[in-house]
């Protein structure tokens, strides 16, 4: 495998004389075992089948009744779970991370928490306190198990620590015309620091108590993550709670994104499929620099398109999303150009993750990095999901770029609902993975013809 790595590195790295487009032709698949390639091809084809994505949890329940928990669990572990999840035990997670490191890839651990915004099944402080401890454990795992160079990153989902219903109420208040000093980032940051009860007039006593508890949980995670040198990438969620999430992230940023303390420690996620993203991104970048704060951004196309449009139809409100994939791609390109220019201008105080499976977006990013003089191992990194888009991830990693794989971990019971939701949110990505399937088929056929059926390394 080491010889193959060296050969691929020499082929992939841009020449000193000028930029050359990376080759996403599946050549980097030669670093993977035949068993891994065969599983990836099978799972990606299954995930592109709409009934499986739509009825995943029902099919799992049916399989358990028909086959029993042991057999159905073994089938899931050898297929979908094995493809997209690091494992459950510390040893399994460590093995996955070490294997990625050997392939030139980095790790972005994610706690698989699931809750619908209007769900009443997971409520109460006990649920959120348990999630707090899971997040703190994720910080420890990111510190102890990640062996790759560069910054240690982990994902943080705010609604794992605070009620989506509270975020919905806060968003309604935030959207009212005129300034609201009660809900300023500065006031929330002060409440985080002091631990004193925050009173917001638009909330009742129970909601105010929950808000203070939520601020304390967020503060504890951010404080501990900074102490352990782990950066937090906050997930974006639905538009009807995102303003509240952005408010909470802004409060954390005031405390943890100071350049003199090595910030940004807290990054926010921006979804290019929303019409106002470019304007908000430009505004937030300017506000951060004006306040003397470092600025961290994870740029995605977005995963909640179908739900957002359904909510807009149900409520009779205007559709906040781009009209089609092409418009979303144009938005992503504009946001990417904006952020790369910010990185080039502000250096180490501005960080960007290009979180995309789209080859054209990756080409744009790498070309503009070269044109702007941004080093491949500098403040710009790339991100893809574990088990997907490996032909892009491997090509980037073998060329020296910092590329992270988003990695959920946990038991089957914890992770399968999470994976089902991610599959439903990423239908277009899964159904658009035909090129990756074709490249996998080509590499498997090449090995069959040449008799090169390698065992797992």
From TrEMBL:
Entry keyword set:
FAD, Flavoprotein, Oxidoreductase, Proline metabolism
Q: Which residues form the Proline dehydrogenase domain?
A: 198-431
SUPFAM superfamilies, sorted: FAD-linked oxidoreductase
The keyword Oxidoreductase belongs to this UniProt entry's keyword annotation: yes
Gene Ontology terms, MF aspect: FAD binding; proline dehydrogenase activity
List the Pfam families.
Answer: Pro_dh (PF01619)
Q: Which GO terms describe its biological process?
A: L-proline catabolic process to L-glutamate
Broad enzyme group: oxidoreductase
GO cellular component terms listed in the entry, alphabetical order: mitochondrion
Enumerate the InterPro entries for this protein: FAD-linked_oxidoreductase-like, Proline_DH_dom, Proline_oxidase
What cofactor is needed?
Answer: FAD
EC number(s) on record? 1.5.5.2
Can you state which reaction this protein catalyses?
L-proline + a quinone = (S)-1-pyrroline-5-carboxylate + a quinol + H(+); trans-4-hydroxy-L-proline + a quinone = (3R,5S)-1-pyrroline-3-hydroxy-5-carboxylate + a quinol + H(+)
Entry similarity comment: Belongs to the proline oxidase family.
Function, in words: Converts proline to delta-1-pyrroline-5-carboxylate.
Q: What is this protein identified as?
A: Proline dehydrogenase
Q: Write down the species.
A: Dipodomys ordii (Ord's kangaroo rat)
The encoding gene? Prodh2
